[in-house]
């Protein structure tokens, strides 16, 4: 299964994910990003449904490199708007050049979702409203 399904199951049961498990998953994905970024690869679609949990539920793997991009140099930036809206960085939302930092932003959104069992920018009536929330950093931390 994937992390999205795992989170949905936890939502239904109103059962938070243990901090130890969240930290383990976060570090594993961070290490995967460190590796691919070292190879100058931007994932560009990091989200819970692209994080696959192995049967043991202890190992998480980063998958779906379908829209990833290899950058030629260390200062090159991508400009194509791609990715899943709930996890897009402000620069992607604003159609500005972006770098590896956008993948890190997406990982931050995943971390928020693991901790709260909901995406950081909640639900929005339409894409423009969601983009506005992301660009303005309009999120609520639940109590």
From TrEMBL:
EC number: 2.7.11.1
KW Kinase (keyword) present: yes
Coiled-coil regions listed in the entry: none
Keywords: ATP-binding, Kinase, Nucleotide-binding, Serine/threonine-protein kinase, Transferase
Pfam family for this entry, one: Pkinase
The keyword Hydrolase belongs to this UniProt entry's keyword annotation: no
One function term, GO molecular function aspect: ATP binding
Enzyme class: transferase
Taxonomy, superkingdom: Eukaryota
InterPro entries for this protein: Kinase-like_dom_sf, NEK_Ser/Thr_kinase_NIMA, Prot_kinase_dom, Ser/Thr_kinase_AS
Catalyzed reaction equations: L-seryl-[protein] + ATP = O-phospho-L-seryl-[protein] + ADP + H(+); L-threonyl-[protein] + ATP = O-phospho-L-threonyl-[protein] + ADP + H(+)
Protein name: non-specific serine/threonine protein kinase
Native species: Strombidinopsis acuminata
């Amino acid at each position: 299964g994937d992390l999205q399904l795992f989170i949905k199951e936890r939502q239904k049961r109103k059962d938070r994910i243990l901090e130890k498990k969240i930290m383990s998953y976060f570090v594993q994905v961070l290490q995967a990003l460190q590796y691919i970024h070292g190879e100058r690869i931007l994932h560009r679609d990091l989200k819970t449904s692209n994080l696959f949990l192995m049967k043991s539920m202890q190992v998480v793997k980063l998958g779906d490199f379908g829209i990833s991009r290899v950058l030629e140099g260390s200062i090159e930036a991508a400009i194509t708007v791609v990715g899943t809206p709930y996890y897009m960085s402000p620069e992607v939302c604003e159609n500005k050049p972006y770098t590896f930092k956008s993948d890190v932003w997406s990982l931050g959104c995943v971390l928020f979702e693991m901790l709260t069992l909901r995406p950081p920018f909640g639900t929005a009536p339409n894409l423009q409203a969601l983009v506005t929330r992301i660009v303005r950093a309009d999120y609520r931390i639940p109590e």
